Amino acid sequence: MPRYLVIVESPAKEKTISKILGKDFTVKSSYGHIRDLPKSKLGIDIDNNFEPTYVNVPKAKKLIAELKKTTASADKVYLATDFDREGEAIAWHLKEALDIPDAKTSRITFHEITSEAILESVKHPRELDMGLVNSQQARRLLDRLVGYKLSPLLWKKIKIGLSAGRVQSVAVMIVCNREEEIKSFVPVEYWSIEAELSKLEPSSMPFKTQLFSKNDVKLDKLAIQNKEQADAILKDLMDAKYVVQSVYSKERKRSPYAPYTTSTMQQDASRRLGFSPSKTMSVAQKLYEGVHMGKGAAVGLITYMRTDSLNVAKSAQNETLKFIESSYGEKFLPKHPRIYKTKSKGAQEAHEAIRPTSPKRVLSQMKQYLSPDEFKLYDLIWKRFLASQMADVVYNTTTAEISAKNYLFKITGSTLIFDGFLKIYNTDDDEKEIKLPPLKNGEILNLMQIIHQQHFTEPPARYNEASLIKALEEHGIGRPSTYAPTIKTVLDRLYVRLDGKKFIPTNLGVVVNNVLKNHFGNIINIKFTADVEEKLDEIAEDKAVWQNILKDFYKPFEENLNKAEKNLQRQKIQMQETSEKCPNCGKVMIIRDSRGGQFLGCSGYPECKTTMSLDKDGKVVEGPQETDIKCDKCGSPLIKKIGFRGKQYLSCKNYPICKTTYNIDKDGNKVIKPEPERTDMKCEKCGSEMLKRVGKKRSFFTCSAFPKCRNLQWIKES
Description:
This protein is an alpha+beta fold. It has 17 helices and 30 strands. The strands form eight sheets. A six-stranded antiparallel β-barrel has the order 9-10-14-13-12-15. The protein has a five-stranded antiparallel sheet with strand order 22-23-24-25-26, with no helix packed on it.
C-alpha cells in the first residue's frame, strides 16, 4: 500500500509526476471538481448566513469511494491541485469529501511540471489557504445567485433557455455599448497636406513631409476642416521657398514586452495564430501537463498558464540569461536583469508569468514532438519570454524641420542600429526604417509636388477576441481563468456573433442587455463587477469576510428582482424581414442569428422549418445540388451542400440511411479520406489496438476504442 498519496486534478499529470516521485508515492487524479452546488436547486441558505450545500458530483461517485480507500491507507496525503484559487478550492473539497484528517493533509503547489519543481514542492508543503478557498466560494455563490435568480426572469420575460451572469452579462454589455457608439458615430471631415521634396542634386532621392504648424501653432489632426481651407493653404505654398530650418539626430531605445500573462497570451494567439481563447487554453494545458520527448516520462514545457503575474523565478531568469549569452552573445544581454511589475490590481504575485520551463528546449528540437498547434503556441511563448530578458533595440532617429513662408513641415527618419530582442521576436508594431537624405541647416530644397487629401474620422472598431479580452482585463472584470469561458458562453447563448473576427450583438443580445441595464444597472455594470473582483481579492488576503460581501450584494439585488417581476413587460425580439419568400410555404423569410453567422429562416417557424444559408456578403446561397459523382459505399449520387461557415462538402443522397460525406478540394473534386491503418501497437491507457491515421499536416496514432478512449499520439517527422 502507498506510503504517500498525491492527488492532482488531471489524469495527464499522473504518470509524469509518478515517475518523478518514485515508488513510495502513488499519484491519483480527481478529474477536476468532485463536489459542487446541486444543479436542481439554489444550494444556498440565504437566511442562514449564505451557508452553501455541497454535493458530490454524480460522475465522481465511484472515484470518491476509490480515493477514500487509498487515503485511508496512506501515511500522508499531498493535495497537488492547480496553483490558483480554483485549485485551492478543489483541494479543500477533496479534503472534506474524503474525510482526510488535518494531521496527514499537506498542500503542495508548483508552477511547472518538472523534476526540480515537483521535488521542491514535496520538501516544502503548506496548509490549505482558506483565504483563497473562501474567495473562490464567494465567487461561486455570487455567480450562482445571479444565474439562478436572474435566468428564470429572462425565461419568463424574454425567452426560455437564456442565462445571465455577473461577468458574461457585462461582456455582452461592452459589445453592445460599442455597437451603439458605432451607430451614433458622425464622421468629421478633415484634410492633410503633404509636400514631396528633394535636394537640388539631380539624382537626389525624394521624400515626403507632413505639414506640422502654421504661425508657430501646431496643427492638430482636425485643424484643416474642408477643401476650401486646404486649397487656400496649397495656393499659399506653391510659390514658397522650402528651407531646412533644423536637423537633429538622437539615439532611441525600445524595450521588449513583458512575458505573457493569460490575457496577453490569449490576445497574441488570437492575432497571430487565429486561435480562439478556449483553444489557446486547451493547447497551453497540454504544454503545461507534459509532452513525451522520446523515452522517459513526459516533460512539462511551460509554466502554469492561468496567471496575471509577471514574476519570473530567479533561477529561471539566470538560466535564460546564460542561454542568451551563449547563443547570441553578451551584447544581447540587458545591463541589468529585467524585472516586470504587474499592473492589474489583485494580481497573484506568488505566481509566475507564462514561460518555457527551460530555454534550452529550442524550437528546432521541439518541433518533432509537438502537434502543429502545440508547436505554434510553444514558439510564441518561447520567443516572447526570451525576448523579455534580452537587450533593448536601438534606433538612430533624425528629425528635419523645413520652413515654407509661415508654415513648418516635419519628417522623422529612423534606422536600426542594434536589433536587440528583435533578433528572435518580431512584434505586431515593428517599425519600418525611413531613410532621409543627408540634410543640413539652411539648405534650400526643391518642391516636386504638394498634395492635399480628404479624410473622415472613423467610428471605433468592433471588438475581436483579442481586444475584448484586453477590455475585460483593463476594466478589472474576471480573472485569467474566466476570459475564455466567458467568451464561449456569450457566443453559445447567441448574445453575440462573430462577423469575420469581429463581435456583433444579436437582436437577442440587445434585448437581454437592455433588460439587465434598465432593471439591474446597479449590479450588471462594469464598475460593480470590477469592485466585486477587488473584494474577492480582499477575501483571498484575509482582509474581508466572504459572507459580508454576499450580504452587501444580495439585498439590492433582491429588491431589483422583485421590481422587475412586477413591472417588466414581456419583451419581443424584433426580427429583420427580407424580400425573400419561403420556397415551401410562401411566407416572408427573416434574418436569424447563429454562432456561425446569419441565415434566413421562415417566419412561419415552427410550423415551417425552412432555412437558407447566407454567404459572407449576405446573399442567399443556392441549395443542395445533385452531382454526377457516386457514393463509394452505396452508389447513390452525391449532393453538394453548404456546411458550417459556408464550407462546401459532398453528402450521400441516401442520407440518413447512408451517412457518407466527402470534403471538396479547390477544383470541386471529392477528397477521399484514407482508411485508418491497423498496427501492432497497444493503447497504453486501455490496451486496445492503435490505428494509424493521416491528418492534414501529420500522421498520428489513435485508439481504436475512440470515443471511449481518446488517446492520441503524433508521429515524429523524419
